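Protein modeling request. Please complete all fields; requests missing the sequence field cannot be processed.
Requester role: graduate student
Desired output: 3D structure, token encoding
Chains: 1
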Amino acid sequence: MHGERPFHEELRAAIAASGLSLDRIHERLRLRGVPVSAATLSSWQSGRHQPERRRSLSALAVLEDVLSLPPASLSARLAPPRPRGRWLPPGDGLPALDRAWPLGGARGAVDVRWDSSLTRLSCHNRAEVDGQRRLRSLSSRRLLRAEADGADRWIALYRLDSPGPLPRIRLAEPLRLGTVVELPEEGLVVAEMLFERPLARGETVIVDYTVEHREPRRVTRHVETAIHVPMREHLLEVRFDPGALPYACYSYRTTGLEGDSRGARFRREQRLRVDAAGVVHAVALGAGECRFGIRWVWG
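Delivered output (299 residues):
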């Protein structure tokens, strides 16, 4: 965890330290196949705009190299993307977290007050599917940044497709479990993950945990996450047993959070290729409110 300057301040300082003019930087980027104008660079370092689209985000890695900066030193300082299109902030007074994953009987038992003050910089979810075609575990590693002093916990929710025995949650140090609410009748477990100490504004923290099923579940055909606030990068990975590979895999993203992916009217779907190790992945960049997942068809 560490304090950090905003993106535009870090970029401005790096440009000044490089001794390069904006035109020189533009030319070096152009020679590497990354056409970013001097005007765009100026708007980035002034704070008027920031990279948000996929092409601009890809250009940051090259810009960091041109400015002799460590990898991700600029991208890690970006603020959340501004809302676009159909995404709107909650207007009905219902907490965004509860809109994404209804808390059910756990409402009031866990402290969710810090959820809206933690910016999601990136998230990597990895699902393990065993040789019997069942979900064995789901690991999650995310990078968060505090936008206010005092944030001291992350709330994790895991909901089964149907009621049944709940999984075990295992944390990576220095995280500690706080209140855990288990509701087998709802197929829901909600857990507070306590940080080593309260964060100061601008500090970042890594939240790393694994959900492990203790009893066999039914055959699995999809994994899904609900993104209820803008997130820069969300990587979803599924690892299949080499002896039990699916016939076909697809990534999908719904419009909004209403309903679930299977009943969503609007969604984008793309065919995915399983690699030689039995792994498939999909990434959502700059996603607003949506349900994002991977589904597959068993042969």
